[in-house]
Amino acid sequence: MPKFEYAPAPESRSIVNLRESYGLFIDGAFTDTADGRVFKTISPATEEVLAEVTEAGPSDVDRAVTAARKAYEQTWSRLPGKERAKYLFRIARLVQERSRELAVLESLNNGKPIKESRDVDIPLVAAHFFYHAGWADKLEFAGYGSSPGPIGVAGQIIPWNFPLLMLAWKIAPALACGNTVVLKPAETTPLTALAFAEICQQADLPPGVVNIITGAGETGRALVEHPGIDKVAFTGSTEVGKQIARACRRMHRRNTLELGGKAANIVFEDAPMDQAVEGIVNGIFFNQGHVCCAGSRLLVQESVYDEVIASLRRRLVTLRLGDPLDKNTDVGAINSAAQLAKIRELSDLGEAEGAERWSPPCELPARGFWFPPTIFTGVAQAHRIAREEIFGPVLSVLTFRTPAEAVEKANNTPYGLSAGVWTEKGSLILWMASRLRAGVVWANTFNRFDPASPFGGYKESGYGREGGRHGLEAYLDV
Ligand code: NDP
After folding, report:
1. Is 340's pLDDT higher than 70?
2. Is pLDDT at 2 greater than 60 in this prediction?
3. pLDDT at position 418 over 70
4. Does 248 participate in catalysis according to the annotation?
5. Of 116, 292, 389, 466, which is the active-site residue?
6. Residue 4, CB-side half-sphere exposure with 13 Å CA sphere
7. How far is the CA of 390 from the centre of ligand 1 (A)?
8. Interval 53-76 mean pLDDT
9. Which of 107, 170, 224, 302 is the most buried (most CB within 10 A)?
10. Ligand 1: distance of its center to the CA of 61 in Å?
11. Residues with Cβ < 8 Å from 379, sequence gap 6 or more?
12. CATH T-level fold of 264-443
């Protein structure tokens, strides 16, 4: 199949006004650190330094929690729901107004293609604030009692794969329910959270309701263990999630965890093949596979295995890898050198364990962190690439013969976040969905998100739900 040559179509970055350095957003204002340091944040696509950011130390964490407590007691928890809703609506509209700037900033700092940040991440951020604004004055109808109250101050820690979207998943429900927050973005992607701090100022949000403290793992640990926090919400690796769960148990502190995944994307022989192949590509190559619910294990019914693999390879040849700000880019940069090393290590292991590796011919840029879209066939369930979360653009393909075998293989994982089923039979979809141990099961689609739909996992994928009516429970004292 001929490969189209596309002229460069870069989105201009002039819409982003980067400051040279950023302080911490505490009590409604940007402040210098009391006892922390500064670090540089880069573009993973070029390794260019974008800005200097503050690493919050213990007394900064303390200041942020104190500000959040004061705002909770004196202002936010006392406001009627309809007043809180006004602020959330205002934030949602400001996100929409600044959407192009936020999309460019997200792609610069994270490495994800602009068409994803522009068409998926940022619209979903606005949607989450609109959705939760709607709940703020209707909480008594959410099914959690006649006057459900807030919990208090939430400590929130988010990862680097969807920086602003994960912020929205955490902050929107917390604020709607009357809580205040201290949020720590990931070390490698702090810039859109800091832009969000400006949006809080623009929206005239009362000082201290949202506090953003940048830093690394140590800052996160100090936040989790601060005595002034009432609840911890975490999204990230299962390993850190377990540490946080232990700390919270020790301190009798509520917590919700959204952790890793190793989702099965299951294709039956009667599936609409063209759509299924698109779904497979979307499932694992969207956001470079840096997706906790990525369809990283493809289970194909044996009778259509050759057809699916041939179509998938044809499709992968057309994917364009490169400049995240180019509007034609499908696959952007890997977020960090550390993540790239992990993807390389696990992929090399896949080969060493006997699986067959294939990537389309594609040139990787000389600077920055890059990994080509990769498929492993001949994968056995015991292989590490079939068991561990690679968190990169790497697909492991397995086969099955019967629906029962598909269920058994899909559930053969310590995780349980998501799954996909591709078939034209509605009864088979329902049969599978009732047996798959996954928080979300997509039918004839993949990686679909909606603020009204709860998201969360089983087993080592964590507990608690985010989004929808169910997600409110995590921020209500019920
Ligand atoms: P982490 O779990 O380390 O990071 C998630 C967040 O937790 C970041 O803000 C991080 O800060 C913070 N953090 C790190 N250590 C602690 C701690 N001890 N106490 C409190 N907070 C802490 O993920 P990584 O970025 O290290 O990625 C490692 C692997 O995790 C990936 O390869 C991937 O497999 C998986 N992952 C899964 C995600 C998911 O959504 N399921 C998201 C991200 C990663 P900082 O960034 O500054 O270290």
Report:
1. yes
2. no
3. yes
4. no
5. 292
6. 9
7. 13
8. 98
9. 107
10. 18
11. 350, 355, 385, 386, 396, 397, 398
12. Aldehyde Dehydrogenase; Chain A, domain 2 (3.40.309)
Whether 212 lines ligand 1, by a CB cut-off of 6 Å, is no
Chain centroid to Cα 310, Å, comes to 31
H-assigned helices in 372-416: 384-387, 403-410
Locate the domains of the chain by residue range.
Answer: 24-259+458-477, 264-443
Q: What's the rounded Cα separation, in Å, for the pair 363 and 3?
A: 14
Measured CA to CA, the distance from residue 223 to residue 215 in angstroms comes to 11
Sheet arrangement for strand 356-358: 356-358, 374-377, 394-400, 297-301, 264-267, 418-422, 440-443
pLDDT band at residue 5, thresholds of 50, 70 and 90? Answer: confident
Cβ 180 under 6 angstroms from ligand 1 = no
State the distance from the centre of ligand 1 to the C-alpha of 241, rounded, in angstroms.
Answer: 8
Residue 293 is among the residues annotated as catalytic for this protein? no
Find tokens 């602020």 and name the residue. 87
- Ligand 1 centroid to residue 1 C-alpha, Å: 40
Query: Residue 361, exposed/middle/buried by CB under 10 A (0-12, 13-18, 19+)?
Result: exposed
Of 55, 116, 225, 258, the active-site residue reads 258
> 6: pLDDT confidence band, cut at 50, 70 and 90?
confident
Q: Is there a shared CATH topology between the 24-259+458-477 domain and the 264-443 domain?
A: no
Q: Inter-axis angle of helices 305-317 and 273-285, to 10 degrees?
A: 60
Is residue 326 within 8 Å of 114, Cβ to Cβ? yes
- Is the pLDDT at 3 greater than 70? The verdict is no
Per-residue pLDDT reduced to its tens digit, 28-52: 999 999 888 999 999 999 999 999 9
Q: What is the mean pLDDT of residues 160-183?
A: 98
